[in-house]
Amino acid sequence: MIKRFENNPIIQPSEIEPLLENSEIIGAFNAGVAYHEDEFILLLRIAERPVATGENVDTWEIVEGELERKSFNREDASLNFEDPRTIRAVDDLDGFVALTSMSYLRIARSKNGKNFTVDDDYFIFPDGEESSLGIEDARITKIDEAYYITYTQVSRYGVSVGLSKTFDFQSHEYLGTILAPENKDVVIFPEKIKGKYYMLHRPSLKSIGGLNIWLAESDNLRQWGNHKYLIGTRNNSYDQERIGAGGPPIKTSKGWLALYHGAANNHVYSTGAVLLDLDDPSKVIGRTTTPIFKPEMEYEQKGFFGDVVFITGAVEKDEELYVYYGASDTVMAGGIIQTQDILEQIERES
Ligand code: MAN
User: Fold this and answer.
1) Which atom of ligand 1 lies closest to the CA of 103?
2) How far is the C-alpha of 266 from the C-alpha of 177, rounded, in Å?
3) Distance between Cα 136 and ligand 1 center (Å)
4) How far is the CA of 286 from the centre of ligand 1 (A)?
5) pTM of the entire structure?
């Protein structure tokens, strides 16, 4: 269904200069998407880490506003290095220890949506206590003249959701933490529905329940309430383990179309779609039972964390969607999908 760009992957870590001293970029992926003044904007998640010394796994944490280098010994039996993204304590499987890289947000710009130039500096760098281990996976929603950016904030206190606002992609204003740990994958709807703002979010449960998508509403975009379970993971499916919203829902004549990532029990991340009622987004009209696309190309199957297509946004142009996704937690890719094709698939499979 997706027609991938011929020049995929459109952004790769090797094309970008590291920002920090003595460091390397290992990922430029999962970018928030916007269209501003005739320009496609990708707000990249850049994952950087110190160049390793010897056998150790080196990373950073922000301590009292300063980057502090941390070094973990691979031979240390009390630590678990199995997941390349994290370093965990063996005895306390739920206890979070560290990430193997620090992520921040940096802009790439393009006129045609396919050839991008990455800014020299960062756009948002983690600086608060809630983001001492980095910020990740932005989503962007335009409401009137403002662009609202939601993103994952990681710290030793958990994974929370931050909100920033920009008018021009030159400077931004931080509006605070809008959801406490543990939560991620927040997308805000592009307009009010019956006088309320809406968001999709994904609480990351540890005791009871799955990693499902919820709906919440707000009067002011900062305080959110009236939370409702919306859609969940499904057994024996491409979305069995976890799901999370991609870009902001797209308004169509049939309803709000939301694309989401779904991970199967073998950790393959594909893309699904759900259709919500235009006047009451808590009503699910339909949902795909097969992915609208899945990792098939080499850059989608091989990388820092392989077999991942992680959709984060789209730009709508004449009934076509320019969709963007991170591939294998390493690069950015994109392609074109016809909105009509997704709607037909939802209808067929619901
Ligand atoms: C997961 C992965 C990582 C990410 C952490 C914290 O382990 O998605 O890439 O850094 O969560 O959000």
Assistant:
1) 10
2) 32
3) 8
4) 29
5) 0.96
- What is the token pair recorded at 51? 């160049």
Kindly report the protein residue whose alpha carbon is nearest to atom 1 of ligand 1. 85
How many angstroms separate the Cα of 347 from the Cα of each of 275, 278, 289, 343? 9, 16, 11, 6
Residue 102: name the closest of 192, 20, 14, 221 by CA: 20
pLDDT digits (tens, 9 = 90+) for 163-213: 999 999 999 999 999 999 999 999 999 999 999 999 999 999 988 999 999
Query: Identity (one letter) of the amino acid at 80?
Result: N
